[in-house]
Structure prediction request, 123 residues.
Amino acid sequence: MSKQPTPLTVLDAETPCCPPLAQRRVPAETAAVLAPAFKALGDPVRLQLMSMIASAEGGEACVCDLTPAFDLSGPTISHHLRTLREAGLVDAERRGTWVYYRARPGVLRQLAALLTVEPAGVA
Prediction:
């Protein structure tokens, strides 16, 4: 039986979930929702996979194109991709024998907005 977690809901909106870190403290509840996405990106392989998926031509990447880019086994790559999916960073769609991954731009914008730091002197 496959367990499909629900993608993060706080990160689904197009509007920022919270002010940037440099402006105001992140509430504990928000931090608990955001932390898995940051944790998923904290692994070098997952960060590279995320970059490959987000920058892929047509906005999606086939697992068949991602796996050969690493000196890792297929199951290990699948584990990393599942972690990205469970963190709400990518969506996956099976087409025949292959799975295609697409970045969730709204989620990436949320994470980027949280880390935004205004230059000194800008209000």
Notes: Residues 67 and 73 are 8 Å apart (CA to CA). Confidence is low (pLDDT under 50) at residues 1-10. Residues 28-41 form the longest helix (14 residues). Strands lie at 61-62, 90-95, 98-103.
